Amino acid sequence: MTSVAATSDVRPAPALPRLPSLTGLRWIAALLVFGFHAGTMRIIAEPDYKAVIDALFTLGLSGVQFFFILSGFVLVWSAREGDSRRTFWRRRIAKIYPNHLVLWAATLVVAWWFADPVLPAAALENLLLLQAWDPRPGWFYSINTVSWSLSCEFFFYLCLPLALPLLRRARPKLLWALIVALPLLILALWPAQELVPEVSRWWFTQIFPPVRSLEFWLGAVAAELMRRGLWRGPGLTVASGIFLVTWVTAAQWIRAELWTTLLAVAYLLVITAAADADVRGRRSPWRSRPLVWLGEVSFAFYLVHVLVMTSVLRWSGTWGIGFEGWRGPAVVLGFLVANLILAGLLHRFVETPMMRRLAPRRAARPAPVPRQRTAGDDDARDPASSARGEAGGAADEVGQAGGRSPYVDLR
Q: How many CB atoms are located within 10 Å of the residue 366 CB?
């Protein structure tokens, strides 16, 4: 069982460590979504080859679920006491909006090239990230289709500064009750959809921001428990095993209304276990340099991949037909590489510089005041807790020197 060492008083740590493993895991989630779309776009015409993609990525759409849970966890973990709501909102807008704006404009250019009709009202909704609130078929997938998730994230960002003081003051029993209740509420959405007109049921269960916020709050509550040193869960190896068993079982035998709940729990266990490994300095395969870089560009990758693939398939005349033989898998790999290159450029020349320009700078944290240790001191009982402040302080210096937040940023 893993946990962050409990402390006798819940005081905000002078600095919390970075969680690079969560950055690496972001790439895995983005890859799941990519694989799902590669399968549903019928890029591979050969049935045997396509069956492999389908088997591996049948549940790839749940990668967005992972992003939402991770977003809630990271934002609560990295929240600083004293940050104003305006500062928080400005930082989040600076993170997501420049990339969104570039892809919004690029999608309109592609639509003009193919002479696709564009509804001005739909384009405006998408530009303002309001499309997830519109249940009309096609509207929530307007312009750059994947940006519906940004519309949800934008809602989460608006809510978090209002809810965070309550979360900070909540008693542990209430937090644990929420950890149990939130997956059950996700499960309850499936019978609840019967109350919604049939044409809007997909929107209600998969798009509607308050519904998708259940996953965000699940991550947020877990982060608060871990921040206080109260989280109890399996280690990274066991959590990863639970996820793999859940993934395989759900893909083969479990209905969608059940696997969404089971995967939410499995994802949460992996996220908390990876975070705990980083806090304690334990081994984690997810914080290698290549994976961390892939995680850093995963947001840009997610935004570009569908537009690139659909545009190339339409231009080549293979949309809905696919490529025969070995060319199908080769094209999928080519799309993977091309999207990574474009994502790297977008991250390097848009996302990073615009974050530096638009986001408010974090003030340097004051050095922690030394205090006399006693035989019963919590830090003396757990060396990891004393290292935590040092690691976080060093991360702050590195992050500020690099001109970006020292914390993992989801979007």
A: 9
